[in-house]
Fold each of these.
Amino acid sequence: MNGDDFLQLAAQRRSTRLFQERPVPDAVLRRIVAAATAAPTACNRQLWHFVAITDPEVKEQACRLSYAEQSYLYDAPVLLAVFYDASLESRNPCKTPYLSAGMAIYALLLAAEAEGLGSLYLGGIRVPRGLAGAVGAPPFLENLGLVCLGYRADTPPAPPRRPLDEVLSYNRCDLRAPHFPADIRPHLWSLRQLADFREKLLWYKGIGIDAQTLHVNPDPRFSPAIRHLTGRLGMLLARRERPRFLDVLAYNGDVLLQLLLAAGARLDKAYAYDLAPGILHYLRERLRPLGDFPNLEYLLNGDPDRPVIPLPDGQVDVMCCYQRLEQFADPQPLLEEMARVLAPDGRLVLLVSNRLYPHLYWYRRMCGQNYSLGRNWSRGPERLYEPAEILRHCRAAGLEAETVTGLQPVELKVAGWLEGWARRLGGHALGDRLAGWQAGHYAARGCSRWFARTLVFELRRAAP
Amino acid sequence: MTPAAAISMTPAPETLRQAGADLGGWLAAVRTPCGYGGPAVGARAACLSWCGPAADWRLEGILDAHGSRCAVAAGAEAVAALDALAADLATLPPALLADGSLRNSWFEFNPGEGGMPHEPAVLAAALRARRQLVRQGRPVPAGLDEAVARNVEERVLKILWNKQLQTFCDWPMSGYDQYSPPTVAAVIELLLEYGELAGGWPRLDHYLEGAAASLLAVQRPDGAVAGGLPLSNRNGAPCSPFLTARCLPALIAMRRRTGEPALAEAAAAAAAFVRRSALPGGGYPLLVHPQRPPGRFPVLTGAAAGTLTALGRAGLLEPGDLAAQLPWLLAHRQPGGAFATADGFGGGAAGLPAWRDVLPVTGWLDKLYALLALAPVAAAGGGAAGRPATVPPPVAAWSCEVRLGWRRRGRYVEEADTLRIEDARGRPLFRWRKGADWAEVNELAG
């Protein structure tokens, strides 16, 4: 093997989440582990231990006890639990046991690739002791994750890699500022940092494209706001002949995908705009397995320091921005840019989380500041706005609100709570009435909309 | 009521045929070249914005209805039924996405792809219809076989097969330790049809045996839900008579294939549960809980019809079943030829029906359509004397008062080309032009 062969092997390795049922021959498994044992280890101590889990019952127990219940863990023919005896080095400041195990794990992944197998390293085991208990590992062994091994049933796309010059310096370190800022307060970020953060969230925080994430989960428990937004957008598009549609900061493309599948053929043009090339690459890769969308165009932000949608003025008939404004400390430039490309009779549907919604999770984390980390890392950091703030910004950008709707108003929470209690106490008649009422009150247009969880602004360009 | 008395209450076959023909006319008005459109109202959610064509279980009932007509009709009527069958089958291949899922297959959660148990149910019905076309010497619509193969191979077997539980999941993303028996049953029906078409039995048997075993494993052994198949394998999950009935054809078909007596016993117990759950005045409760009183409302007309057609497909339909349900179903026939969706949305409060009760939904009407194609034969076979035909001819426009909320009143208006719901002042809250993809106005739900 020459250097090119090795580079090709390293480049073609992917995290695999869909495996064939074909078992992995024991001889292949032993060769892979042998490769791991050839990895460097501090003072050549080699205190690692690998447990190959192939028995479905043990696998089920290991997944359940460790609270690691991803479907691919069940599907992979072999789970390799990686242990290291860190008991003798607990005071070692260099953390050499973990580095040694890490090098062994990478050797495992490369060896699996060389054997034609797919692999995935899962380090986020919630309860490592549960996993250790399931396989009977003694207490001095520390679990450092699981490696899934098996023959691939999918071909996941290659995530973007940072250019070599960005990560390599000679003699003196070139990096002056954190490249992936740990700070979650968006007002401290430049647009470049936000773009970088969003791109990495998408590719590196568990939203890889595979069979599980290809489709939008249409269960309304997961995506009621997307369903509402898709419905509003579809109705707005249906009123126009061959409309042009723009998804502002399309991100993983949930809204765009739903609209393209439902109404794509009617569109003259659909635009997906976002800040970083990696995000658009993700979108392309996600849409590719679902079909051809010839009228879809990807738009990359035109200026790294401010939002610039690379479209002429008044180009777009219907536009949406789904819970993205929250990631900007100052939404004004983005709103102005949206107003610029909106056609004179066009409509912008803006979904924004509402600061006035009594959401304990948010309030707990806001702690006196206006920022909170999104409920999960797929959203990133957020700033919450009051409805009046949004309306003020919209007016300043030359947009006026045609309608404002509240999604999931606060009384829905109360009704859900009452329904639960009514059913627990056997009052199904009341429970049924409350359930029926809730089903028709997800979108509120009365006073309670101002206390809804999400606000939907339907905006048009203000008369000059 | 004694069975004999019940049978004497069965509407005459001619009445049922007339109601079926009127319903067929209503469905034709919401058909586009891409399929059947219309709003969707489910038990807990409604999809009123997207009203375009969908590949959800609405096609299952419609294809089965055409199939029933083909089987019993003769002459020009049989040719028309075959033409309709071929035309509706031809709408399926374009709905297929490259990964094997069907677009707009989530019924009340549309627009969305990958709907369960809609996709396998529709494709199994398509293969039944295909068999009928081939038997009559008609060509198979282009791309149908490839579409079914892609769905089965790329999605059902590759993505939805749960290796741990040895059965089929609804969704591969979360709840991996859960499965839903109605979905599993629909997939069994699809795989059995697919096996007949494409072969590959030893491989498919592995999946089928696991799936059938997973159905038997969750059947409730005792209590108020004895014989019922729950909504999911979670402890304490309630049973739906409608969804239990939908498992019957799969259990019977697997019994035929494997000769396993436990499957026949399970089917008999499930059918007994379904019959036991029937409400005295007609219809079936939405859910029966193991340790709580049944959650009765809404009582869906389409679900009652779907229950009877599933019993019919399993060969377990008795004249008494029809006699108990058909008068109640026909009482929900609307002047326009469609049927009301339910009784009791919003908890069955007395007074005006809720708008959800009244709004006709293609994804429920198809089940009535299938039943009305099947029932005249079954009723005649049961020796029903029948009442004289009392179905008035459909009218182009009609309206009725409905309840919009706790105390809000409104009006449902159906015209030749529009469905509309408006408030007491005449302001439209929902308006859909038949054949359009999206509603023009929707301020009601979704």
Note: The radius of gyration of chain B is 21 Å.
Amino acid sequence: MTVAALLAIAVSGALLVALGARDPKRLRSSRHGANDARAASPPLPSAVRQAFGWLSLAPGIVLALLGEWWAFLIWLGAITAIGWTIAITAGYSSVSVSHRSRS
Amino acid sequence: MIKLPQSDTKALLAIHGWSGVLLGLLLYVVICTGVAAVFAEEINDWASPLPHANAHAFPAGIDAATRRLATQVDPQFHEEIAMFRSAGGRLNLRYHLHDTMPNGKPGERGVEFEVDPATWQPLATRKGWDDEIADQTKPSGVAAFLINLHVRLHIPEPWGLFVTGVLGLAMMIAAVTGILVHRHLLADLFTLRLGRDALLKRRDLHVVAGSWNLPFALILAFTGSFFSFASSVGLPAIAMVTFGGDQAALIDTLYSTARPENKAPAPLANIEAMLADVRHRNHAEPNYISVSHYGRADATVSINTVLPGDELVYSTFVYDGTTGALIREQPPLGKVPSMGASLVGIMYPLHFGNFAGLASKTVWVALGTAAAYVSLTGMLLWTRRREEQLAWRRMSRVVHYVGYGLPLALVCAPYAFFALRSSDVPAITVQDIAFLVVSAAAAVIAFAIQDLDRLRRVLLGCTGVMLLGLPVMRIATGGLGWADAWSAGIGAVPVVDIALLAFGFICLWTARARQARVPAAAEGPAAISTEAHSA
Amino acid sequence: MNAAPPHRLRPWLRGVLVGPVSLIVASLVMAGGAVWLPEGDAKVNNLVLPVVLFPLLWTATFLYTCLDKKLARAYAVMGALSAVNAALIAWHLMT
């Protein structure tokens, strides 16, 4: 069950990274005040974002349906911590990109 | 996410803000101490190790030790024997009876032996009521101080539990109202506008941390409130309605493992055989034994284990004390499985995060830290938005004092524990005094330093220094060195020391980092330099 | 002599409602639950479920008393909940 939990975390985590890196609102904010708007990646299309969002929850839903509550709790805790980390990391890297392009 | 009329959104935002700012400081204390208490067992093993590791809580020899020590106490204390692992792998055997305390409340009194299970040599003997025995207990003092502060803020019962229950409620209300007022919760999950207006940055940091932490915040707030309210409000109320106010009868109905009364003398069956049976049935190591009516024909032995494998709800294995035969596997409450028992049973792993050992504890600490961050940034955001008013500027200073002074006071408390370990003063008391003295000193600093950012850096810096000094203090007062601990298999000692050193350096680095980033041109008047950046 | 205008009392009335009244009502609903909830096989569900749900009960009464714009209606709802559960408890104690 540890393997299942780790696998679920890996799948959800990868999708969260994609969602965070190409989040449209975050990209708009990071382009604010920057001189070189072309440097930013294009945002994910809305349909793709929705699909990724639901897919990132899927591993947890599967664990819950299988009654693997131990693994579900580990997954839930891990992905919320991962999500916050992604948000912080992406936020601070956007600041440094914006400062570099302004200078 | 949820579209509400503007008037409702304003009302909810007011509830969110005011519940947070009025109770946030105390909630912050509860959360920070809770984060530390997740590793209570490791902290106790670090602070008070034995010279050798003990792989099992109840090794061979427990049966003989139980019988030998039973001869050393008044037979009235054979009513119940509780056996459990204590700091550093010590084993506590508490021979006691249930009685009414001088204040009229039900309690337990008896004799507790602390032994080294590797040699079965007695290390300490303590006598009296529960609270008196707890005061005499030294090895687990560091974690006991943290847990006491977390569970009841050192406020006497039952008010302490009620207050922490209210704080848990405030956290739940803040989480629920936060969901309702945040119309773009999902769209904003990755939005951190850090390079722009300072207030916007502070708002985004708070909102993003709060949004990601929502599931955990709701779980911890709900379970924490349950634990606090259950004994302070819930059980007395239910006992009043269903048992005429007799709480003992209610507790007996919920937890009893008793058999029909039979006072005829009968020897206890071999405890080690029952332990072996539990290990075989549950594939988990026992961590608690309770013997009822030792030496009588109606004796029972109840054994709990750590949560096995991937389970979340614990069971109690109840044995016939005279034959050693299993009577039943009992849920957390009642004698047969029920929804109520399962719900209560799941509260423990959800709150303590100890269901998967180090993995779950680490996740719980990470998310608990996030919850403390949300609490602190929320108060800083609230006071920053109102800083044109003198009262809120003063409140901002108080938030800085508590936010950065509390960790400092918590880190300094164990210094007193190590320094006065061999004194007769209870371990919690010496740490209380140290905590209050350091808090007072931090208050003087908070009053003296006008610039809030400088105040933050000074308090963080002091915390860093004291963290670095803690392993030194431990070793200087007779604690195990790393080489001795490692060779004895006591991993907690070097690991916790290294963690303290790492956190100490992080605090010092964080305290210095802002100095290098003092704004040269981008930001503006002096007011900006007094704002406190979140951690 | 003029009586105090009602609008001066409203914040106090709201405060009493949101504070002690919401707590008392939640406690009464919890205690009342022990009377009508089924015991279950283990005969503990009616004792335990109300205690488990108490934090949610108080959250609900707290938020409702904060958000209902009509103070009189909020008092009426809280009063009705109190009366029903108090009656249940009284009936149980007397039988």
Note: Chain A has a mean pLDDT of 81.
